[in-house]
Design brief:
By secondary structure, this protein is α+β, with helices and mostly antiparallel strands. It has helices at residues 3-12, 15-25, 31-43, 46-54, 56-69, 95-105, 168-176, 179-184, 188-191, 193-205, 214-225, 238-245, 299-307, 310-326, 329-335, 341-361, and strands spanning 80-85, 88-93, 110-117, 121-123, 132-134, 147-155, 161-167, 263-264, 289-290.
Length: 363
């Protein structure tokens, strides 16, 4: 089969999982329609097709996000798109898609997001009144002057107006938190700068809304992590993480928890979902390893920790905390499965250590 046919086949296998997600998230997207839109996107983009074949897990995760957030891939709506980015397929949700998600969640009734430049007339009148913003929409961007910031005006469920003005400094801090921008100076901050400014404005402004639904939190966390947009928040609910991490057809390897300084056989991983039948290999003498004494630190973990950036270490720490609080260990392991090898190995060791400590404490 061609790359296109193989990529479509990966999505076709997701139908039952997709429908489960639609039901769990109470969304109304239709699998066959979204599969058609996804197929059209890949038919028109060879690079997207190749990326999907090389990283099918990312395609499944991205397509699952469609079901979870309830946004259609219909290109005429402009809410979200399947795009190749840094070796994986991601669901790129536009600022229009973020607004639609917030409206669907019941967090707001309506939203206006506008960029403000130095040659515009802008008068801020407080959080409860619409600002005065006058400019010529037919001017070229350079004619409007230097970028000053973004304002996000929403109508709350009770009819009140809420306005947040976000400075250019805060927008650039969001940009600098993106790995793609800081490491390679590429990605959405280069290709779609104005849209990214608006998206970052919404991400910051929503923190001050009286209520925010889980779907918008889920979308933002996915964009900040998997999509490489940066500016991750620290207040994402556990249920959100469980939903976007735990919906992939893959069986986690079962590994017994050590209870003393004894030799423990490691059970081999179960084959991935694309295989016709999953089989589990028997442990071999070569796979046996000494379990660490309780309370000791694996030197390999220490070595990996010293080689990783602080941002990754903080991300792993937060992931372990959420998995411990929610019991979503399998979801956490699945989430890190597409990470680079060094980071993945370090996160796996930290997760397993936390699982062991929890089991040993009897909680």
């Amino acid at each position: 089969m061609s790359n296109f046919q193989n990529a479509v086949a990966i999505i076709a296998k997701q139908e039952s999982k997709f429908m489960e997600l639609v039901k769990a998230a109470s969304t109304d997207v239709v699998f066959k329609q979204e599969m058609l839109y996804a197929s059209q996107a890949m038919m028109n983009n060879d690079y997207l097709c190749k990326t999907a074949i090389n990283n099918p897990l990312s395609l499944r995760n991205a397509f699952s996000q469609v079901a979870a957030c309830g946004l259609t891939l219909n290109p005429s709506r402009g809410l979200c798109y399947l795009v190749p980015r840094d070796g994986q397929v991601i669901l790129d949700v536009s600022y229009k898609g973020m607004i639609k998600t917030a409206v669907n969640d019941g967090a707001i009734r309506d939203c206006i997001v506008e960029l403000v430049y130095s040659n515009d007339k802008f008068v801020y009148k407080g959080k409860r009144h619409s600002p005065v913003h006058e400019f010529d929409p037919f001017d070229l961007k350079e004619q409007r002057g230097e970028f000053r910031g973004v304002y996000v005006e929403v109508t709350l469920p009770d009819g009140r107006v809420h306005v947040e003005a976000v400075t250019a400094v805060d927008i650039y801090k969001a940009r600098n938190a993106s790995d793609l921008w800081t490491r390679k100076k590429k990605g959405p901050w280069v290709d779609f700068e104005d849209s990214m400014r608006k998206k970052s404005g919404i991400k910051i402004a929503k923190k001050y809304w009286p209520q925010v639904g889980e779907k918008l939190d889920s979308v933002i966390h996915y964009l900040n992590t998997d999509a490489g947009e940066g500016f991750a928040s620290q207040d994402v609910p556990v249920s959100v993480v469980e939903r976007y991490m735990g919906q992939v057809e893959q069986v986690e390897p079962a590994e017994p928890l050590p209870t003393s300084n004894e030799t423990v056989p490691v059970v081999a991983s179960v084959a991935v979902a694309e295989q016709a039948a999953a089989t589990q290999s028997q442990p071999t003498p070569e796979s046996e390893a000494k379990a660490p004494l309780q309370g000791t630190v694996d030197p390999n973990v220490e070595a990996a920790e010293s080689a990783l950036p602080e941002r990754t270490l903080n991300k792993v720490e937060e992931l372990v905390k959420r998995a411990r609080n929610s019991g979503a260990w399998k979801a956490a392991h699945e989430y890190i499965s597409t990470w680079p090898e060094i980071a993945r190995d370090y996160a796996t060791k930290k997760l397993k250590a936390a699982e062991y400590q929890l089991a040993a404490s009897g909680e």
